[in-house]
Amino acid sequence: MAWLMVVVAGLFETGWAIGLKYTEGFTRLGPTVLTAIALVISMVLLGLAARDLPIGTAYAVWVGIGALGAAVLGVVLFGEPLTAPRIAFLTLLLISIVGLRLTGGAAP
């Protein structure tokens, strides 16, 4: 269950990271409120998951999912460049997330 919470927390991290773009510097109320809600949900889920997982592993997976999601959505939503080196490094990030999951285990 802790791993599921980390994954969902990472997806909400992606949401609030992308939401920052839509807030236009926190000048738009609706996107700002939604971004803040996603941020709180993401942090709460990470905190709950950290009760059962090593914090270093949980945090690294959370950040990795958020970074990977934000990078992919940046390409899809905002037309950010998708170059071969960027694909390669995003692939390495994905491999790192999976590797941490496979070797992360639960806290002693």
Q: Could you characterize what this model shows?
A:
This protein is 81% helix and 0% strand. The chain has 108 residues and is mainly alpha-helical. It has one domain. The longest helix is centred in the middle third of the chain and has 24 residues, at 55-78. The radius of gyration is 15 Å and the shape is flat. The two termini are 16 Å apart.
Please write out the topology.
Elements lengths: L1 H22 L5 H21 L5 H24 L5 H21 L4
Helix pairs in contact: 1-2, 1-3, 3-4
Rg, nearest Å: 15 Å
Largest sheet: none
**Poorly predicted parts:** none
**Number of spatially distinct domains:** 1
Taken in chain order, the helices and strands follow as HHHH
Helix content: over 70%
Average pLDDT, all residues: 95
**Cα end-to-end separation:** 16 Å
* Coarse morphology: flat
Helix count equals 4
SS content category: mainly alpha
Percent in strands: under 5%
- Strand elements, count: 0
Question: What are the key terms here?
Answer:
108 residues; mainly alpha; 81% helix
Give a short synopsis of this structure.
By secondary structure, this protein is mainly α.
